Structure formats: structure tokens, C-alpha cells
């Protein structure tokens, strides 16, 4: 089986998107399949037209220099041409496009021209992601157009993969046949992220966390992550638990505003910003944290989409506490593998975290259950099997179509 993946961006860039992509491609290689990828113009400038990163082959599309609608149209055309050239070079059995929807549209052009099956994988609806990132408005003209494009692409793809039940349910409500959709959930590559490292006393001391009860967030600082609510919860939490400290590792669009909010907080001395760290260093910071907190705000994006970070935390044997939104409920069983609290409510966050810190009697068992959940249900070495029946069905159908086209007409 030869699979050409069509991506918005890829390695060596680091994001949740590229980490999931790497996990998929590496797991497929481990199953004996041959894989390569094409990245779109939004990947940015690349030193070579074809690059090998971490043992994976990436065909690059030249970044467009124009903005606006003309830039998008030009970029889409260039992307389709690059996918077509990659098909010539790699000779895949199928195309596997990953959201956003422009990737699927570019891939669809090539798939139809080349007689290749197309799987379209949706990690989030582009229009909802724009609302969550603060670059779009729900119900706007752009939102409606993007949603229509998504529905158009889904109807024309040969199969659709989604990362969670929330997205699957939304597509079914749009009229997409349930048997056309496979759920391929977020997972953790336990060969890379499965063995917790020892706590580094020097690192803890440099951050003033030697004797702290540490709440942590490690990820991107987007508005929908609700980090402003977590910072707002800190005065009440420190009142209840004087040793409580908040460790924020990462960066993003909200970083400046969050730093200003923390500086003005009565609990400013209890809040630490680390900034972005290389992915190879992330485990050192997980090792300093007692409870990982994920206070996502309630909106369509967070209700429909499951995040990756809580799974990484559970793989590291950490306690997780998260807002009670749909995406978290698919990953966390309240009181069993983690704690859920009311979203958009700093008082509820403070109460939930204080309760966890006050009673450690069940910590070891809860952490073990969280780790077991990741191993059994969110491990990429087993997750990857969900693609098998889809790929086999589509490649078999493509072979039959080819055979019919070349067979003599019956009399």
C-alpha cells in the first residue's frame, strides 16, 4: 500500500497538527506501508522542493506571495499542481488529505484526474477553528461559505475520517452517510512519549517550585483554551492552598494579554511563564507538574473537537483536570481518569483544583487508570488499524473500476 498524504503544513514545524501527522505516518510505515506527504503553500518557505525530515519524505509547495482571495486561488492551483507532480514521483495507491478543506479540494482535483481514491480527514472544521482562534465570527458570510465548502468536499470524497465522535455526529446531521465516516481519534506515540522522566530538582529550583503544589498547562495560548479563567482562579486557589503555583509552558496569540493579566493578579507571585520549549524538552516540564489543567471555554470548537494534550498528560502518568465540554468528555471520565469542572467559571476551577490538591489518597490509582486508557484506546500503534478497512475497500474498488475500463465490451 502506497499512501500520499496531503497536508496544510508538516515537519520540521512543530504543532499539534504536525505531531499527529508524524504519528500517523510513522505508524503506517511500521505496518509495512509506504508513505509520503505533500505540504501546501501555508507551510512557508522550504530549502528544497523535496525534503526528508525524521525519515519521512515531504514534497513542498512554493509559498504564495499574494494575500486575499487571489492568493488563496493561486495557492490552491499551485498546491494541486504539486500534488499532481508528487503522484508522478511517488505513484501512490491513494490520496489521504487532511483538513483544512482547501487541502481536500486541491487533492480532489488530482484524485479525479488520476483515478485515485481520496480519503479526507477532518481534525476540526475550519470555520469553527477560525472562531476559536479569534479570526472569524460564527454565522458570518465567510463562516457560511467555509461550512458550505466543507460539506461539498465531504460529499465528494470517497471516505471521510474524523478525530472524534463530535465531528462524526455533526457530519451525519448534515446528511453524510454514517458508513462513509471512520473515527480515527487523537493518540499518543508511546515509543516517543511513553516513559516519564525523573523530576529535575535544578529546573524546579530555577522556577521556584521546590516545595510547590504545581498546576500546569503545556500547549498553545489560544483564547479558546481558557487560560484567562485559569489565571483568574489563582487568587482563590492560593488562598485555599498557599503552596499552589501555576506553570504555563508555551506561547501563542494570547500570550501578551495573559502575561499582563497575571502581572496584575493578587496571585502574581504564584504564576510562572516559561515560554515555548523544544518538543524534546517538554517531558522535563511535565515532570514538575502535579495536575495538568485544561480550562477550555465552551463553544462549537471545544464541544466538537477532542484535544491531544490531555492524552499526553495521561501518558506521562499525570492527573488531569479539564472543563466539562464535549471534546473533554470523550477523553476523561469524571472522578475516574480525571476531573471535570464547569467551563468559563474561575471559581469552579479553583474549587476543583483545591479539592484535588487537598486529597491525594486516590492519585496513584487515578493516574494508573488514565495511563491504561491511553495504552488501550489512544495508542497510535493500535489506532492506525482503523484506517485498514477503509483503505482496503477503496483500493479494491479502484482496481475493479480499472479492470472494467480495460475489459472488452460484452456482446
UniProtKB/TrEMBL annotation:
Coiled-coil regions listed: none
SUPFAM superfamilies given in the database record: UDP-Glycosyltransferase/glycogen phosphorylase
A Pfam family annotated for this UniProt entry: Glyco_trans_4_4
Glycosyltransferase subfamily 4-like N-terminal domain ranges (all copies): 16-187
Superkingdom of origin: Eukaryota
Alphabetized GO MF terms: hexosyltransferase activity
Protein name: Glycosyltransferase subfamily 4-like N-terminal domain-containing protein
